[in-house]
Design goal:
This protein has helices at 8-11, 19-29, 33-52, 60-75, 79-98, 106-120, and strands spanning 125-129, 131-132, 139-145, 151-156, 163-168, 171-177, 179-181, 184-189, 197-202, 205-211. By secondary structure, it is of the alpha+beta class. Strands 1-3-4-8-7 form a 5-stranded antiparallel β-sheet, covered by helices on one side.
C-alpha cells in the first residue's frame, strides 16, 4: 500500500464524505495501521470538541430532521463503522447548530475552550466561531484542516442566501454560496490557497467573520 488517506482521515469522522468515499476509508484503515490511528485520533478529537461545547437544545425542526435521517441509517446493514460515523456527525450537528448566541457568553466558554484547545493540539483540524458583523448576524462555525486543504462552514438559521468570501496572502477569493437546507446552511471547499480570514455575506452585507489560525 503506497498511498495514505490524506485529508479524508479527518473528513471521515466528521461525516463529510459521501458513502463511496466513506467505504473507501473503511477498506483502507482495515489494512493500514497508520491511517487507522489517524482516523481514531480525529474521531477522538471530534468527540472531545463536541463534548466540550456548552449544552444547548436544537430547534424542534432541526432535531426532527436529524432523527428522521438517523432512523433509515440504523435500519440499513452498512456496518458498525458507518452507523458510528453518522451518529457522531449527527451529535456534532446537534451541538453546533443548536448553539444560540446566548450560550456564547464568556463564562460558559472558558472551560469548553480549555478542553478544545488541549485536544486540538494533537489534531489535524481546527475550529472557530464566526463573530457577528451586523444587526442581523448569523450563528456560524468553521472547521478547517490545519494544513489549509479544506474548510467546512456551517450556519444555523441563515436567514437567506449566504455567500462566503475568503482572504488569502495574495488576495480575495470567492468561495461560493452555502447550500441551505431548511434551517441550516453549509459549504465544504478545498481552496487552492490557505485562507487567512473569512466573511459571510447576505445580500451584499457582511453578517459574520472569522480569522483562521494555523
Amino acid at each position: 500500500m503506497t498511498e495514505h488517506l490524506g485529508e479524508n482521515a479527518e473528513l471521515y469522522p466528521l461525516g463529510l464524505l459521501d458513502d463511496d468515499a466513506a467505504r473507501d476509508v473503511e477498506r483502507h484503515i482495515a489494512l493500514c495501521s497508520t491511517c487507522a490511528a489517524r482516523v481514531a485520533q480525529a474521531r477522538s478529537v471530534a468527540a472531545s470538541l463536541a463534548a466540550a461545547l456548552p449544552a444547548a437544545s436544537p430547534s424542534p425542526a432541526l432535531e426532527r430532521r436529524l432523527r428522521e435521517s438517523v432512523r433509515p441509517s440504523l435500519g440499513a446493514s452498512k456496518g458498525r463503522t458507518s452507523i458510528f460515523r453518522f451518529a457522531l456527525a449527527a451529535a456534532i450537528a446537534l451541538i453546533f447548530l443548536g448553539l444560540g448566541w446566548q450560550t456564547l457568553v464568556l463564562q460558559q466558554r472558558l472551560k469548553a475552550e480549555d478542553v478544545a484547545l488541549v485536544t486540538m493540539v494533537h489534531s489535524h483540524f481546527n475550529h472557530v466561531s464566526m463573530a457577528p458583523e451586523s444587526a442581523n448576524p448569523v450563528a456560524a462555525k468553521i472547521l478547517y484542516a490545519r494544513d489549509g486543504s479544506w474548510i467546512y462552514i456551517i450556519a444555523d438559521k441563515p436567514g437567506g442566501s449566504l455567500h462566503a468570501i475568503g482572504e488569502t496572502p495574495t488576495g480575495t477569493i470567492d468561495l461560493g454560496l452555502l447550500t441551505t437546507t431548511g434551517e441550516t446552511a453549509s459549504l465544504l471547499v478545498h481552496p487552492r490557497e490557505r485562507i487567512t480570514s473569512m466573511v459571510l455575506q447576505r445580500g451584499g452585507t457582511s453578517v459574520a467573520s472569522a480569522r483562521l489560525t494555523y
